[in-house]
User: Fold these one by one.
Assistant:
Number 1:
Amino acid sequence: MQLGVLSRTYHLSQIILENNNSEEDVIKYYSSFKDFFSSEVIPNVLFIDDTLINFDSIKKEIRQVKKKSSEVQLVAISNANDIDYADALIDCGFDFYLLNNDFFFKRLQKCLNSVRHNFFQLHASTEISDIIKGDSEEIKKVFEVIKKASTTKINVNITGETGTGKELVAQAIHKQSTRNQNPFIAVNIAAIPKDLIESELFGHEEGAFTGATKRRLGKFEEAKNGTLFLDEIGELSLDLQTKLLRVLQENEVTRIGSNEVIKTDIRLVTATHKNLRNEVFENKFREDLYYRLLGLPLNIPPLRERKGDILNLAELFIEEACIYNKITPIKKLHADAQRKLVTYHFPGNVRQLKSLIELSVIISDFKTIRASDLLIENEEIEDISLKKERTLEEYNIEIIEYFLKKYKGKVNFVSDKLEMSKSKIYKLIQEKKLSKY
Ligand SMILES: Nc1ncnc2c1ncn2[C@@H]1O[C@H](COP(=O)(O)OP(=O)(O)OP(=O)(O)O)[C@@H](O)[C@H]1O
């Protein structure tokens, strides 16, 4: 990475050089803005000493720096322990503010780590296979649909169990599309309190409701010319479904408390682990919105149905975890661990595999990860139930009992998870077929 230091003293450049932990970085020193603008080299990060910060001209200079390269990250270094001063610099366009006191070196390291992280994010590959790992036939079919979606503006509806990589696929569609220079905004409807969803999506004006102390842009506006990913769309209430449908038909939004109509140009990608068609049958989801959102349907199979990806992904996660934890050499998977992984059914899919591996990297004592290092929760329950011989109905009852226990008797949750009607579960309870309830 190219580091630039804009300072009247060469000394600052020396400090940064001495405390920088990456040998691949190159430092370039400039004594004035004029010197910087006349240089051919464009650094990835520019440190500016506060002897060179002049509030009358700094905004204009920063605009010129960003014009020269929109990617350059700006760091102000100052002796002033003054929050208002730091705020004013950030308002002028600086990305970081570093106080030059006893803790400077520590802060410099942290700042350089953030700068590097931003740099790699910006330059991350847009190739689908670099974003989504796996080479099973099933995942290759997903890649094909992503490619088709990327070349058009069509809405995409992604289905798949939890942790299968729905958000990752939405990101890949965005990165592959012509919108990739514009924002990718992800919203998880299930994670937002119900009474805040409308304002989160469509924004509000100051004073529009109690607590609305400032104007706030909604996610539709934030995603301007980019991609809006609405995860768990099945959780949207019927009245908000009506509002969403209107926004999609008119391509315009109105903030709560405003009459101003704002044009929107976004690609919508939605995801759900629910069967939306069933929700339509049960009158929980508007049919017209369902067809509007459906666009190009993309289903990501659960990990247990693409077993060919398990070991590839496991090796990738081992490598990432070893690098992150500075463990060398990179650990290997013992044959017994490989067997355990490929025979497990992964209810939490890739997310579960990733956390399982991250933990095994830490707890394994040797260079090899053994089966005993893979701590799979409820492993015995699964094993025992498959070893005994039973009828299909007995299996079903055992599964429902297992989920009722897991979700503390909440029939709503169990019916969602098993995609089974609540009435059927209540009937089994009434008939006392479920021994524990
Ligand atoms: N094919 C893959 N290659 C690499 N990482 C993956 C892959 N699939 C999933 N992951 C990782 O697994 C985790 C879960 O993925 P993601 O959040 O996209 O799943 P999701 O289906 O959106 O989950 P949820 O339904 O719970 O929101 C993330 O850390 C993601 O990076």
Note: The mean pLDDT is 86.
Number 2:
Amino acid sequence: MPPQRRSGARVVAEPSGLLREKRSVSVKKSRVRLESQNSWLMIVSLLLLVTCMVLAAFLSWPYMRREDGVAQVLAHSQETVQERFFEVPCSEDYDNHKRFPGCTPRMCGRGVTDTIISKEEAIKIQRVAERGLSLGGSDGGASILDLHSGALSMGKHFVNIYRYFGDTIKDIFSEEDFQLYRDIRQRVQQEIAKTFGISSSSMYLTKPTFFSRMNSTEAKTTHDEYWHPHVDKVTYGSFDYTSLLYLSDYTTDFGGGQFVFMDEDANKTIEPRAGRISFFTSGSENLHRVEKVRWGTRYAITISFTCNPDHSIEDPSLT
Ligand SMILES: O=C(O)CCC(=O)C(=O)O
Ligand SMILES: [Fe+2]
């Protein structure tokens, strides 16, 4: 049905053929102009939208990478790493401390190796950790046992196992257990010295040196909050080189619990694996945290070294 004119609309005389043609050409031209204007408007709006999206992604990318777990994996739990080293520029932290030639880091970075400690040794030392930690344990998700000081998490506090259990501690730990710790400590020290080009005899074991056990139980005190980003040199003072020996496997024994270096450009993670040693210079060039453990139990030992002989400690021993 043809369109009806509205009543009351002004009646205009129909244009002649030539005029109609001219008008139709001019209508076509203005329609083309309008269409081209519209498409330009669309292109400009689209470009604006894309620019906004790119800008938003660009601005939130570092945040996403640092906080939301988008990360580069430095060592997967399924692979066997011979020796892997990643150099990073040293922070200025070391300038604020006394320098010890032949030990204070001149080169900074992080290393990983799965070849220094065997799976069997890792299992053995994990049993020592299990036995020790079974004497107490935190109410929250993080328990520690410091073999040197004897500090053991117990409920919401700590006890000293050497005092608390007296001589009966010899029924729990053997001289062989301590020998294994010393042996591991020595090999880790040599590996760190070799990697950073320093002399092994100019670095010393420092405190704390401890077993850690983490699970997904809710934190009850701040001692259970192991996941906060930190710098070991700030947290522990005496550390110059930190090492971690992992005693259980990521994804097999526990979920979550990856170790994360929080670099400016991206997070870099290390997936724990029994027998894996991760070591690094302890300054703020190696800001790090541990992801929350989501299930299972994660065991590790922290063994750290100082360049300052005043902060050195003896190897833990039974006597
Ligand atoms: O267990 C780990 O992977 C790291 C623990 C840690 O950062 C620390 O003890 O300072
Ligand atoms: Fe740390």
Note: The radius of gyration is 33 Å.
